[in-house]
Design a protein that fits this description.
The chain is mostly helical and about 70 residues long. It has a single domain, classed as 434 Repressor (Amino-terminal Domain) (Orthogonal Bundle), CATH 1.10.260.40. The protein has 5 helices and 2 strands; from the N terminus they run βαααααβ. The chain has a two-stranded antiparallel sheet with strand order 1-2. The longest helix has 11 residues. It is globular and about 35 Å long. The relative contact order is 0.24.
Length: about 70
């Protein structure tokens, strides 16, 4: 079950570049790119820092997509 995110949406909604957010949480721009594209799942600590900088809850920023259940 892949981790989904709204990082790009939340970041651009605040007018921040990837570099701005990366600098704010102490990672590289490449890390932000990878998270936004779903190629990297952040640690709990980084997820908390990102949510804090964007002033949203971790649940609003990240979620796990679950497979659809087949009907019986």
């Amino acid at each position: 079950m892949p981790l989904q995110n709204r990082l790009k949406e939340m970041r651009t909604g605040r007018g921040w570049t990837q570099q701005d957010l990366a600098h704010a949480v102490g990672v590289t721009r490449q890390t932000i790119i990878a998270i936004e594209k779903g190629g990297y799942e952040p640690s709990v600590r980084l997820a908390l820092e990102l949510a804090g900088k964007l002033a949203v809850s971790v649940d609003d920023l990240f979620w796990v997509s679950s497979p659809r259940r087949e009907r019986d």
